[in-house]
Design a protein that fits this description.
Shape: globular
Number of domains: 2
CATH architecture of the largest domain: 3-Layer(aba) Sandwich
Distance between the termini: 72 Å
Number of strands: 22
CATH topology of the largest domain: Aldehyde Dehydrogenase, Chain A, domain 1
Number of helices: 16
Strand order of the largest sheet: 14-15-16-13-12-18-19
Structural class: alpha/beta
Radius of gyration: 23 Å
Strand content: 15-25%
Largest sheet: 7 strands, mixed
Length: 499
């Protein structure tokens, strides 16, 4: 397929060539290939609605082949490498991601719509840093010697940390490359092999990462990719009897299906799901920090962020000023193609996602909230201007359901006790933000908010060392940090009788 871009925009020959060969997007046993069925799907540039690439539409047969390849690599190559050798290969992989950062970021922008600056300085940069962080963990997973007191005799007892085996990783379309690194980094460092299933809407960087992993020296089968639709490829991976763990980031509804699918062989499951995160601004907050913090909290990546601060609770004395300043900032946002100079915000990922977000905006108006947006929306593509709702009550749909777009509900509160109850009155528990200059209040709030991450006078800060995940219907398990890498191992206890 020939890549078509708006006038004045272009990509490197390397990117254009890769897109033209995207139909061979399944990577099994170190080779790119089409789907066994020969079926394909078409991905779209969300900034124009024009076709972007033809992708292989894999299904259960392709998953079977990928899992068999991963099992063989686990038993005969990657799983048998000394930890230091795994670490060195992963460091080389991270270096290659850095070397190809602009190419990867361009592919991510074309696929997902996000501005190139975000794709380059957030997605590509932190993908390399995450893989590099976990390369260091390859030599640091160890067991313990246990001070046992058996009822009979004497014994020397120790534990070993061993990899689980084959990991199925299913990643979403909002941060396809970055979240892939969250899954494959710890899984590979611990000695597991991986079958990766990217979103059918954003598969390009997954395939390119698999190529770079092979170039870095990872053996064939250590990292496999099966592109395709969720009900066919994703479901087959979640159900597969030779997969030892499934790790998933995406919607709560899909997470429930994965739990059900995993029951066949009782495989381990880790889920990072939806959110409706409260971002709480107290009257004593520094608004020079809180306003841009709230802006980033909801409008980064077009609002397509699972931990987006989509409920801004603002204490009554500063409510009007906060709304005025935030609305003025939103009105200056420049929407456009992610490759165009000066673009602040790109399109949503698909026509369906745009229509879903617009539907929520319409429901907010119908239920009595007042929208404000002054940003111009380009013609063509799947754009939605940043929208700020005032006059919102907790019972409104826009205040309860995850929208996954650039839509913010601003709610007034009167006291600390009041806002805690309202912030926690959600079926989600992924993240929360607190803005205050009172250190005691900040720590009180961090303790009582029901969320996996609480940011104080900050929002959307991430680091490979800091675990990320949620509670309630936001899922269970953690990405990032030592918690993640240990979750891809199991402890084995060894008893040695000394009598």
């Amino acid at each position: 397929m020939s890549l078509t871009l708006p006038a004045g925009l272009s990509v490197s020959a390397e990117v254009d060539k890769f897109i033209s060969t995207a139909a061979d997007s399944i990577v099994v046993d170190g080779e790119r290939r089409p789907a066994r069925s020969g079926r394909t799907l078409e991905s779209v540039d969300p900034a124009t609605g024009a076709p972007l690439a033809t992708i292989a539409a894999g299904d259960a047969a392709d998953v079977d082949a990928a899992v068999a390849s991963a099992r063989s690599a686990f038993e005969h190559s990657w799983g048998r490498l000394p930890p230091a050798a795994r670490g060195r290969l992963l460091l080389g992989f991270a270096d290659l991601v850095d070397e190809h950062a602009e190419e990867l970021a361009t592919l991510e922008t074309l696929d997902a719509g996000k501005p190139l600056t975000e794709a380059l300085y957030i997605d590509a940069a932190y993908t390399a840093e995450t893989i590099r962080y976990y390369a260091g963990w390859a030599t640091k997973l160890h067991g313990d010697v246990l001070p046992v007191s058996p009822a009979v005799g004497e014994a020397f007892v120790y534990t070993r940390r061993e990899p689980l085996g084959v990991v199925g990783a299913i990643v979403p379309w909002n941060f396809p490359m970055l979240i892939t690194s969250w899954k494959i980094g710890p899984a590979l460092a611990a000695g597991n092999t991986v079958v990766l299933k990217p979103s059918e809407m954003t598969s390009l960087t997954a395939v390119r990462l698999a190529e770079l992993a092979l170039e870095a020296g990872l053996p064939p089968g250590a990292l496999n990719v099966v592109t395709g639709f969720g009900p066919e490829a994703g479901q087959a991976l979640a159900e597969h009897p030779d997969v030892d763990k499934v790790t998933f980031t995406g919607s709560t509804a899909t997470g429930r299906r994965i739990v059900n699918a995993s029951a066949g062989n009782l495989k381990q499951v880790a889920l990072e799901l939806g959110g409706k995160s409260p971002n709480i601004v107290f009257a004593d907050a520094d608004l020079d920090q809180a306003v841009p913090g709230a802006f980033t909290g909801i409008f980064l990546n077009q609002g397509e962020v699972c931990c987006a601060g989509s409920r801004a609770y603002v204490e009554a004395p500063v409510y009007d000023e906060f709304v005025e300043r935030l609305t003025a900032a939103a009105g200056k946002v420049r929407l456009g193609h992610g490759l165009a100079d000066g673009t602040d915000m790109g399109p949503l990922v698909s026509a369906g996602q745009r229509d879903r977000v617009v539907g929520y905006i319409e429901s907010g108006v119908a239920e009595g909230a007042t929208p404000a947006s002054a940003a111009a929306t380009p013609a063509g593509g799947y754009f939605v201007a940043p929208t700020i709702f005032t006059g919102v009550t907790d019972s409104m749909t826009i205040a309860r359901e995850e929208i996954f777009g650039p839509v913010l509900s601003v709610l007034r509160f009167e006291s600390e006790d009041d806002v805690v109850v309202r912030a926690n009155a959600s079926r989600y528990g992924l993240a929360a933000g607190v803005w205050t200059t009172d250190l005691r209040k900040a720590h009180r709030m961090a303790a009582v908010l029901q969320a996996g991450t609480v940011w104080i006078n900050a929002y959307n800060m991430m680091d490979p060392t800091a675990p990320f995940g949620g509670c309630k219907e936001s899922g269970f398990g953690r990405d990032l940090g030592v918690d993640a890498v240990r979750s891809y191992t199991h402890p084995k206890t060894v008893w040695v009788g000394l009598d």
